[in-house]
Design brief:
Main location: membrane
Function: Putative Notch ligand involved in the mediation of Notch signaling.
Number of strands: 57
GO molecular function, one term: calcium ion binding
Shape: elongated
Bound molecules: 2-acetamido-2-deoxy-beta-D-glucopyranose
Subcellular location: Membrane
Protein name: Delta-like protein
Strand content: 25-35%
Radius of gyration: 81 Å
Distance between the termini: 172 Å
Oligomer: single chain
Amino acid sequence: MCDLRSLVGLVVFATCFTKVLPNGRFQVFVITLNNNRGVTRDGRCCSGPSSYPPCFGACSTFLKICLLHRWHGNPRACGLGFATSPIYEKNNLATGNDVNSVDLFLEVNFQYSWPGNITMLVEAWHDIDSQRTINDHSQLILRTEESLELLPSPAWITSSSVTPTSEIEFSYRVICNENYHGNSCEIFCRPRDDSFGHFQCARNGSRVCMTGWEGEFCDRAMCTEKCLNASGICERPFECRCRIGWYGDHCDKCVVYPGCLNGNCLYPGQCICYDGWFGKLCDIDLNYCFKNNPCLHGGSCFRDNVNNYTCACPQGFAGLNCQYSFCEKEFCQNGGTCMMTNIYERRCLCAKGFYGDRCQHSLLSCDENFCKNGGKCIENDSERSCDCLPGYLGNQCQEEIDECTSDPCLNGGTCRDRVNDYVCECTTGYAGSQCAILIDPCDQFLCFNGGTCLVMTENLSAFCNCRRGYSGERCEIADPCMSFQCFHGGSCTFKTGGTRPYCLCAAGYDGDHCERNKNPCQGILCQNSGKCAVSPMQNGFVCFCKQGYTGEVCETKINNCESSPCKNNGICKSYSDSFICICPSGFGGKRCQKSLMVSDQRQNTVQLLADSEKGGAVTTVEVASSSSLTIEPRYLTFFISSTILFMFICIVDQT
Ligand SMILES: *[C@@H]1O[C@H](CO)[C@@H](O)[C@H](O)[C@H]1NC(C)=O
Ligand SMILES: *[C@@H]1O[C@H](CO)[C@@H](O)[C@H](O)[C@H]1NC(C)=O
Ligand SMILES: *[C@@H]1O[C@H](CO)[C@@H](O)[C@H](O)[C@H]1NC(C)=O
Ligand SMILES: *[C@@H]1O[C@H](CO)[C@@H](O)[C@H](O)[C@H]1NC(C)=O
Ligand SMILES: *[C@@H]1O[C@H](CO)[C@@H](O)[C@H](O)[C@H]1NC(C)=O
Ligand SMILES: *[C@@H]1O[C@H](CO)[C@@H](O)[C@H](O)[C@H]1NC(C)=O
């Protein structure tokens, strides 16, 4: 608190106070004073011969204001001050509303705390001695007294008063002087914008800081915490001026020691090396060897705290980087002479017949054996070299170029290296020097004996699809079984190397072609109860059929009606060995060949009652004996069966 600035402020303030400056002004402005008759308060004429009106002389009027404490003031004392106006030789005073009129304007300057509660006296007097003496109360023209609470304000308050003899209207106010504020005009505040403060003053006298300033006297600039925390100087609002050795927006970066190459600092002037650096200026690269590999000619590099690195040079070399070489014994071999070509390069002059940096190679002139594989040998003063034939490489053409390394064969072809060339062995289906051509596998793939060439989709190989009876890759082999028949389910086989095919017969058969049945009745079923017997004829067996059947295995039923034996539309019925004819009406005989008389008819035929569905057709049955019977249809079946039985018996008898 007790710093120099406060002290200076105090001195300045003290200086201000020592100047006698009133704190404020009480002002009254009389608008009108009417004293038409020119009398004093008690009604007497101010001047002139007559004591009472009409008066012949005018009043010498002056105004007086008097201020005193409200509750305890001696009205005579005007304890808070007073003021008087000039003397006007007239009864009525008026200024209208012209506030600037000096004449009727009265002012009390005060240098005390304005008390607020006051008593205010406004008086008009008649002057008697040009001294504005007010001892004689008979000279009073008018007096108003107001006790009130009056606070400083620029606004005028108007008041008026009427007495029996006169009337007055006036305005008044109390105002603080410039830079004084508050209800008592005791608060001093002068706006300023200098090193002692930056503020305006509020109505009530408190300081209102300008933007960017703070503190009781608004003399502290607002600053960022970052700047203040770092090494910044902040004297103007939001300024951040760096102290020497610091920089950056917030003055938080320190300036390193001059010349510091690879380091930083915590405080100005430091040079704290980054990893891998060393030295006062952090200019020694501890990894220099590793990064730069500076040692030439096979020198070994070592870390060095003065020069970054030191090279340990191999024999014959010197210099920081082993860059210098010097002639030494035995450097040039085979009798060569060492020479310095400049300060750091040596060179060997080789004896005749040798070459190389150190004359280590023997120079042979071109001979047949130097260049291999037909390469041509070329020689000049220092070397010999080979001009190789196409397909060969190497300083002696000793290497054969493998043309297959570029994989020139397509579609799975296999590459075979040749001199300056290659050959592709193509996979099936491809051709061409690089197997790029897809060929039809059936081209030139002949199939004999009508066989067809087909292509295997998976590997594009051709194969022959042979016709029946042929086999072999190209269907060239005819099947000997083609023209060799085997009967009775026998199968033909052909033994490789055998002379002819033979039959493998099914069980029960033999013979070259399985044509013979070993037991002809085995497996033969004579149908319809026929009996099988071995026979040298035909198939080797014979079936003896039951009556009414025929055929090789008695499979056929004999039909005696086949030759249509019944005449005149007689209906034929076949019975094992015989037949009967069912004759139409009017005919008879075994074959219905006889035409019958009506009398005969009555005698010999039986009228068969036709059922309604047969449309009334009449059937006559004639039995072989021609003795006619009359049979009801329901007995017909029985009749026919009996007849058959009868005939069967006859047939059996005959045999
Ligand atoms: C004037 O007097 C009244 C009543 O006693 C009081 O309330 C008020 O605060 C006084 N005013 C001043 C400015 O002292
Ligand atoms: C003065 O007035 C200002 C506003 O103009 C206000 O912020 C401040 O509190 C006041 N001070 C006092 C002492 O009344
Ligand atoms: C300033 O410093 C103080 C104390 O060291 C710390 O608490 C604060 O966070 C700092 N502010 C900034 C902005 O760095
Ligand atoms: C060390 O090497 C660095 C580069 O890696 C170079 O800047 C520095 O000047 C060198 N110091 C000396 C002493 O030669
Ligand atoms: C000798 O031949 C080699 C290879 O052909 C060539 O590089 C070299 O310059 C030649 N030297 C001279 C001296 O002609
Ligand atoms: C092609 O494939 C078939 C079966 O998928 C095989 O029998 C035949 O030998 C193959 N041909 C060649 C040339 O690989």
